[in-house]
Amino acid sequence: MSEVVVIRPRDRAAWLAARNRDLTASVIGALFGEHEFTTIYQLWALKTGRDQRDDEETPAIQRGRLLESVAVQLLREQFPKWKIAHNAAENVYYRDPVNRLGATPDVIVDAPGRGKGVVQIKSVEASTFRRKWLDEDGNVEAPLWIALQTTLEAHLTGAQWGAVAPLVVSHGLDMPLVDVPLLPGVVAAMEERAREFWQMVHDGCEPEPDYSRDAALIERLYSQGDASHEVDLTADNRVPAIIAERRERIVERDAAQDRINEIDAEIKSKMGHAHVAHVAGGRKITWRPQARAGFFVEPKTTRALRYPST
Fold it and tell me: Is residue 228 included in any domain, yes or no?
């Protein structure tokens, strides 16, 4: 095991500077293609400086940040005998400089009978929790990318155990404690993937994008273009195939849109002047006036057709 360096940054800027050198636990799942929000191509863009959006706070991140102290308080109430250290104030950063891995754990615990542990806090909307955290039997299981995050945090802090505390936000608050098994070989696999990633960056190579998830990033990276630059794709046999597929998809889309327009027209003719139509199953269709503000064109009122969701 390589030596872990403990960094106590003086402010947020210093903390960002420290973690920008590494692959952090929060995104480690991307190296395995298992992260819900980040791909390896996005990591490559960030770590090579091609993309500068790493420190932007999304609404979900803001929610997690603001509710973290609430979760810590719940944890203290649920486990009053634990010694719980909340890392929010100091943002202590644990770094493996050899493999360039790092982590800022949410909570470090000293639990009687269990020893030192880390608890990763996540705030989760109730329907998302049911869909992504519960198995077929109703048992709670942390998503793999979060389990990998917790595993790396436990490793870097020298903890004997790790767990995730999902703060489920609904009409009330619920927060089960979900243990994460610290399986042998997982950290070694992380270290190997990290070394391969940094070698790729060093060699000036780039990973294959996930074209469904990375489309917005690709658009952003090449938004300006270069009028003096041309690329020769004549030897790329995949390009003619996907061009043909795109043409077929456009035809299918246009045909589908024509049929959608026909269905809308039939429904409107059946509704006539009515704003609401009741249909089988207790559902309803609405066709109510909708005003459009006049900024560069004259104000206009049209009727918006709304179908039941199911």
Answer: no
State the residue range of the domain holding 43.
5-215
Query: Tens of pLDDT along 65-75?
Result: 778 899 999 99
* Helix (H) or strand (E) segment spanning residue 121: strand 115-125
142: pLDDT confidence band, cut at 50, 70 and 90?
very high
Q: Angle of helix 40-47 relative to helix 186-202, nearest 10 degrees?
A: 50
Question: In this structure, what CATH number is given to the domain that contains residue 160?
Answer: 3.90.320.10
Q: Which residue has the tokens 């329907």?
A: 127
Distances from the Cα of 74 to the Cα of 165, 167, 177, angstroms: 10, 9, 11
pTM over 0.90: no
What is the CB-side half-sphere exposure of residue 263 using CA atoms within 13 A?
Answer: 10
224 domain residue, yes or no: no
Q: Has residue 295 got a pLDDT over 60?
A: no
* Domains of the chain: total: 2
Helix (H, G, I), strand (E, B) or coil at 66: helix
148 shares a domain with 53: yes
